[in-house]
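Structure, all two chains, one model.
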Amino acid sequence: MHSALNRVQNVFGYFTTVASVVAAVIALSSFTQPQAPSASLKLRNIQVAKGRPHYYSSKREEYAHVRFDLDTDLSSIFNWNTKQVFAYIVATYPSNDPTEPPTQAIIWDAILPSLLEPWHENQYIHPGPPPTPRNGKRSSRSSNSGPTYSRTKRPGILKLSNQKPKYQITDHTGLIANRGNATLELEWSVQPWVGMLTWKPRRDLGVWKKLKGGVSKTFSFPEVIGKKPADMNTVKGGERNRGKPA
Amino acid sequence: MAEEALDYVRDLVEGQIDFEGQRLSELIYTVLLSLVGVVAFVTGYITQNVYNTLYVGLAGTALTFVVVVPAWPIFNKHPQRWIAAPHKYSSSSGFNVEVDGKKVT
């Protein structure tokens, strides 16, 4: 402590200690924030058609196209230490071999940013209300796009009706038609500002209540339809990342 | 003239303080930084904004650096007085130092 350099080293050393302790307290504080998310997830329509994994492939696989309704309130997940929530919908169905675990595939996902997170082009843009044309005039873009739900005071509220999937799914065998006992389930992971990545709790963890609802009724994949209908395309929303790895 | 200015700058950079000042500065930075940590967390938590924790923490740390690092006059209020050399040592013959059993003069 006798010289200025020595004092710089000491103060900086203690600063790192204080910073890591504060960071640890912040990380632990998220477990004291109550959360009680709820969701209603319904299967709307499901179609299975033959397709190719990519244009030049000679392999023909069966692809399932799942439309769904999702009405969820994940706003309680957004506490002061939440940076963003990655919400996704998983289709789960038993494998052909009963000794093997069930197969899971993601049909839709969204990056839900917290209010403090800087804008990024991959963040989810919630579809606004349908445009209401006045006097036959095209309404301006700002009123057309409607409120983006992820940028309101309470992020994490999603109301999707007859939503097209982001990804068509297939089985590793290439056959997905006529598979039974399938469900859709809403999942998420939470990226905090400080601390560890957490996933949807399977059961109540203190003040963290598990998701109420969020699982669809069991359904079966239908027969393969002959020709691929026009409305079987996937939709990526307004965000930049169109289902490709970032 | 340049010599004096150089000396002044060197003293400023070295920032020597006395023993009492060292004890005081150590106390100040420990208390201040601990306090900054608590205040930063509470500020962020109350405003529900983790950025405020960051900014308050960094600002408080910067303040601590300003308070503790330079050799402020308060850290030099108790200069160490050296005992004056006894008169007999002032002559060169007065030393009584032995090295390997031999007297060194």
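The mean pLDDT of chain B is 87.
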